[in-house]
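Running this now, will post back.
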Amino acid sequence: MADNNHSHFQHPYFVLMGIPGLEQKCYWIAFPLGAIYVIALFGNGIIISTIKSESSLHIPMYYFLCMLALADMGLTLCTLPSMLGIFWFNYKSIAFDSCLVQMYFIHTFSAIESGVLVAMAFDRVVAIWNPLRYGTIITNGVVCRAGTVILTRAVCVVFPVPFLIKRLPFYHSNILSHSFCLHQDVMRLACASTRINSLYGLIAVIFTKGSDSLSILLSYVFILRAVMAIASGEGRLKALNTCVSHICAVLIFYVPLIGLSVIHRFGKHLSPLTHVLMANAYLLVPPVLNPVVYTVKTKEMRKKIIQLFVQTKITAEG
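Update: finished.
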């Protein structure tokens, strides 16, 4: 009878955790955390504005980079309110529905970023495998269609997740393990069978991150075959150098993701701090490092950003 009384009850809010063991130092953690968010938003904003303002960068490679920067900004803005609320104002509560909304957008933007990395890999395959026909294969229309497919897939695949969570009863603990809402973290607090949620979550991950990682791996098999066919060593090096930024972006995104998945499945004996740090790395590291990697490794982007800063300085002084 008690179970029936509780079956439709939901906690009005969840309690978000900061960093276990460092609760007394939240105020000091807030400063580097704020700096991380500023760097992520500023860096990706600079990339987007530079590509938008410079007509010479209006080519598929930089359109895909702009999509990646938008996905990174989306991820950053998803976690910013709850993270800064905890560490700046010690405000740890988040309404149940707000938690579901945050969870939806975090997983959606993560799926979008994964899809963009696949599109960028395909772009590099065509550029190296058949450079003479690159302009006719990777057109602006192809880029638009690829962006539409990536966005539609992410939105549709993640859409059922919050509704599957909302149907579950929560009447025991309402304390989450992280500073933001993740599907696995919310699901473990449910007081009913989560088999359907787990099954759908697994299908969604396989359909997005799983298929994407396999596609990227196959893309680099083709790239390596094409590079090995180049006669000169200098040509091989030049071809591989065009992929360095993308390889870094893939590693920056997938290494924390794989680490978080492994820890979630097999690291239940590990300290809560390990889980929290890995989740934070998964969501905060790519938005911070991707702009740095592409600015440092892409000559055209670096040159245009420097020109933009110089022009801004001259205008300000004038």
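The chain has 13 helices and two strands. More later if anyone needs it.
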